[in-house]
Amino acid sequence: MSDRVRRDTKQTVRGEMLMNATGADRATDDLTPVDPRCEYLVNPLGIDVQRPRLSWVFPTERRGARQSGYQILVARTPETLAAGQGDLWDSGRVEASTSVHVVYDGRELRSGERAWWQVRAWDELGQGPFESLPAWWEIGLMEPDDWTGRWISLPAALHGAPSDQSPSLSPCPYLRTTFTLSRPVTRARLYATARGLYEAHLNGQRIGDAVLAPGWTDYSTRNQYQTYDVTDLLHQGSNVLGAILGAGWYCGRVGFLGAHSNYGLVPELLAQLVIEHPDGVVTIVTDDSWEGATGSILADDLLMGETYDARAELPGWDLPGASGDGWSAVRAGDRGQTPLVADRAEPVRVVEEIVPRSLTARGDHVIVDMGQLMTGWVRLRAEGPAGTRIQLRFAEVLNPDGSLYTENLRGAAQTDVVILRGAGDELFEPRFTFHGFRYVEVSGYPDALTSERITGRVVESATERTGAFACSSDMLNQLQRNIVWGQRGNFLSIPTDCPQRDERLGWLADAQIFARTACFNAGVAAFFTKWLNDVADAQSADGAFPDVAPRLVDLADGAPAWGDGGVIVPWILYLCYGDRRLIEAHYGGMARWLAYLERHNPDLLWKNRRNNDFGDWLAVGAETPKELIGTAFFAADARLLARMARIIDRVGDAERYEALADRIAAAFVKAYVAPDGRVQGETQTGYALALQMDLLPAALRPAAARYLAEDVERRGGHLTTGFVGVSHLCPALTETGHVETAYRVALGESYPSWGYMIQHGATTIWERWDGWTDERGFQDPRMNSFNHYAFGSIGDWLYRYVAGLDVDPERPGYEHVVIRPYPGGGLSWARAEYRSVRGPVASGWKIEGEALTLEVTIPPSSSATVFVPATDAATVTEGGRPATEADHVRFLQQEADRAVFAVDSGSYAFQVSAPPS
Ligand code: BGC
Question: Is pTM, for the whole model, over 0.90?
């Protein structure tokens, strides 16, 4: 069984690792570069980074494989590149092993210009060059003046009477323009965005496969546009460009208290179609020549759902020659001053379909079980008389009697309605809403609903899966699946807290706690890069990061552990991706945040401006003093900023922040730590923070760790941590030698624990430990989501401690890998695989009889320090030979229970006949 799972995991990770990447399927042992990336993306269309960073990897697992040099050629055309010339940039041969974030240093590109590039690499013996396949990036509209269109919307008369509730509950605008092309088209790009949501159409076809575009930003600060290659959709003669608009985050409901119209009152479109002919360029823009109408989408709202009346469809509305009945001139505003920025992350897409697990008839409706708590919607087929009204309600869980439990959705109706037009087989899929659900209640369905007629459509920011963790515990494997589903369901344009109730906000604490786990599971660098701009947009004039970004509904300045996300997330991205540019971009903002804390808390305890002061949110059975939490984060911020200052060569700042961090830590100890190492409140979170944030004098650490472990043991292996402490608990226990206690917490199945959620049917991570208990049933519906990722931050421990796959902060982005597994908990094997920016990394161990095997893979040009569980290095073999003599393995030192080796790139299998128990 375990072997089968291991092989499956390996295959899955491998399959996904090398998929979707230019040339990545070339299995080769030489140093052919594959998977060329620009700003983390494969061939990005329409970016606005003038000096983008280029990266590549090598598919070989050959030991010692190392790039000794590279040359990047960047050319205007693929032909020039094929001729071996870089007319935009030729880096020349650079003697370096770096293959990540090489900054393009060629001629500045103009709006719309595409750069073709290729990298050549030489291996460790100087052999080469080995060439990658060509890749490209394309610049979007760089200059504000490039945009000549105007924001357009439906004339007020067509919006219907202004709704007393929300504009999202009035019909969706359809907008279009017709134009004639008299010459062949050589190339065409559509640049489009909306205040609201848009789905663009050209000549009867939907453009692209993104949904919920343009995504969520603070629309009053920046509008994010997408770029599409529409060359093949145009033709000589008459053409129609159109768009359907939705309310989305702009004017629909977001957050709690029924808040809507947060940025504006009606959705608007801004688009620019740039058409190149052999002898010139024609540009079609949104302006007052467009016309608008309403059609079959009678209401749309992210929280409330969508109502679709097929009888009101506008057949052929986006085709030349369509009827003009019901259409009238649009309202055109000006372009405004708000910056337009290129979307730089993966679009939101439908990424998977789910066949329902079961359908159960209940009175006049059917309950459909998707078998998985997911985010998205369903596609429904139906056939029935015109006017048949089918209603779909969505919920995460069921009441004990089998009916939908919707109380926890609060004000989010999550209800879609379809009205048939009576035209045979009809297909419905919403455009401008999403739901968090496992169950769908279908009523009014005209005949027998079957699983072929209703399909779950999983919607998420389409980040690639990069990591996999598996082990011999079925429970932990299910936990890992639940964590991944929690991430998928909540990474939708921004990292949200939950996808179902009237909230769905970008809470900073949730994000900072989970970010490290997220970075393992998926390629989230581009996603977080975008969101960190939202965080920056949300910083107050006084320097405060917010609780939520975009800053909306909860307008407060950040509470401890919330605002600090603005410092912690860039640091985590630096560790995981080696992204120094993010530090540079956000350094000023982070410094302002720290200055704000310092200014308002001169005695270095975070007493003032704790704002919403959530404390260790949703902790159970213990309350950590809030001032202590705040002060711990204050110190952590100063320490991280000191490190980041050093990384970007601000030595003076670094010294100042180091001193500040030391002073805050000293103030922490003085105020909250007793001479015997007891931390005020004596809670797990208090101890875990003090240990993990390095606040204690070395002499007090063992005692503090012992109190922590004792608290866990005294509670029968149970945790008391909330959002703030949860991700630090198992690492703190593990690093201080209480490995079995950490496993006890992680593997526990009685309340409160991850296992308890799983035993009660969780397929994602619950918001609260007590979301449902045997004694009490459901928690207070006013706050009880079944899909919140914060407690899923244990995932980081699974990868980094159980499997032992970690980065070296001194050489981040897996340039130097630290392999240090902690076998325990009765597990017989565990394995993590991760596709890093430098290529595949893996760490897996298994115990057979007495012997332990540790398998390690390190990407080309990288190296690793491997801590093999062994009390005597002489007993360690690698590939059957004494490890001290193995190729590309160097013995470093013997620690009490670890033999430490240095290895180069490649795959290794260490064996210990009698590892320490
Ligand atoms: C959200 C959390 C968030 C919290 C702030 C809740 O309503 O769902 O995830 O961090 O508020 O305490």
Answer: yes
